[in-house]
Amino acid sequence: MSKQVLRDQLKQTLEAVSRQEIERQSRRIALALQQLLKRHDNVACYMSMDKGEVDTHCILDWLFAQGKAVYLPRCTTTRETGQVALRPRPHHPHLTFHKMKSWQEVQELEPQGKFQLREPVKEQPAPLPPRLDVMLVPGVAFCARDGARLGHGAGYYDDYFKRYELQHQGEKPLLIGIALKEQLLGQLPQEPHDVVMDCVVSGDGSVYWTHRCNMMCPA
């Protein structure tokens, strides 16, 4: 099955999940993440949309309460930032991650841009990828068996993973996909450029380690 067909099918499935169920699953995910993140200091997350994906408010609130350094993404383009283009066309979309000062600052973010996301304000110069311990990664679907991820198709995160490796001599942070139960599939189509997750946390609170488990799993 093609990626776009899967996206279309999952969109219909996720639209049927109630807000109450999303909040219930999101709280379970937040509790599981607290155990995984307690020894990590620099964490990238994202601001969730209103429906169809894990609500990140609980985990963001906890991260700030624990004194973690929290980074959120901004959708931009290489034309706007002047950063290196990593795709064939000279100017293309990419992400920058920005350190947030407080939970209050995050709560005050307003929807903006093409996708009406609550994003950090523009910085000049645009920040290069900061050194991170962990990235909490959104997606349309994940495979708990091998860590495969299906994104929305724009390539923002795959581009950023490559950008991060170039900035930090081939290293990557721990990549944790967070997913509602409805977003877990037994198999996903993969392409050579797709980056797999080290771990997937599901809406029932389950934690599925797929890579780097020996190094990163909590005792």
Structure in words:
The chain is an alpha/beta fold and 219 residues long. It has one domain: NagB/RpiA/CoA transferase-like (Rossmann fold), CATH 3.40.50. The chain is built from seven helices and eleven strands. The chain has helices at 3-15, 19-37, 57-65, 78-81, 103-107, 156-167, 213-216; strands at 42-44, 69-77, 93-99, 111-112, 117-118, 134-137, 141-142, 149-150, 174-179, 199-202, 207-209. Strands 3-2-1-6-9-10-11 form a seven-stranded mixed β-sheet, with helices on both faces. A two-stranded antiparallel sheet has the order 4-5. Strands 7-8 form a two-stranded antiparallel ribbon. Strand 10 and strand 11 (207-209) form a beta hairpin. Helix 2 runs parallel beside helix 3. The radius of gyration is 16 Å and the shape is globular. The N and C termini lie far apart (39 Å).
How many DSSP-defined strands?
11
| Main beta sheet | 7 strands, mixed
Strand content: 15-25%
How does the overall form come out from the CA principal axes? Answer: globular
Alpha-carbon Rg, integer: 16 Å
